Amino acid sequence: MHRVRLTGETATLLITLYAKALDHRSRRPILNDEKADEVVRMIDYDFEKLNKFGRSNLIVVRAKHFDEWIKEFMKSNPRGVVLNLGCGLDPRVFRMDLPPGIDWFDVDYPEVIEERRYFFSERGGYHMIASSLTSAEWLEAIPKDRPAMIVADGVLEYLTPENVKVLLNRLTGYFPSGQIAFDVMNSFGVNSARESLKETTGAVHNWAVDNIHAVDEMDPKLRRLDNLSVFRSRYIKRLPLGQRVTYGMMCVIPTFRKMIRLLRYEF
Fold this sequence. Notes:
Blueprint: H1 13-25, H2 34-42, H3 51-54, H4 58-76, E1 81-85, H5 92-95, E2 103-108, H6 110-119, E3 126-130, E4 148-152, H7 161-174, E5 178-185, H8 187-201, H9 212-216, E6 223-229, H10 241-250, H11 254-257, E7 260-266
Parallel strand pairs: 1-2, 1-4, 2-3, 4-5
Antiparallel strand pairs: 5-7, 6-7
Helix pairs in contact: 1-2
């Protein structure tokens, strides 16, 4: 068994990993990520204390949408690059049928990549970069003359609005074209999870989005393609009846409906 020694926002990777493992064990999995389940079983950690978060199938629904958007991009851009920002221990690249012309980069803090290398190895077209997202240097390791698909799954909430803006500007200024997909939470969602998240991992959400147009205005090069409430995802239909009913009721109330939204932009 391997003991993962992470705290604060880096420790939240265990929440998303556990959710994917539980999905694999469910009767009707959405991601069906066997590797995520395998990694969880290799880690010496009391995952039961993450049940409040890990049993949220919304994490899996969110991931499924990002997976599908990545697949669409790779099909249209067979020589493109994919950036998985704040990758954690997510086996996303191994859920894909990675075409030979694609270069995939998983980016996260050095301490996270150190843990990641215990479970995953680089291979043809797959690379890991150890760096904070707020650093400017890590982009230099990535080809800048090819279209890019950039995904930040459950990541940007931990940055300040100023850091998000700088990151978006840096990315759109580096690549000639591409897409950026990420999720945002409104103030209600951030406030609702604050105490439980801090108590469990020590992490804090720093960015709440109540007005999507404020995100649009962060970078003039961005053109929004999608603004999807996770509660209206087509993958909700795969969840147990009780959860489908609950999420359907939540959609009626705007505050709940806008609690978690998936955004996709092109530039």
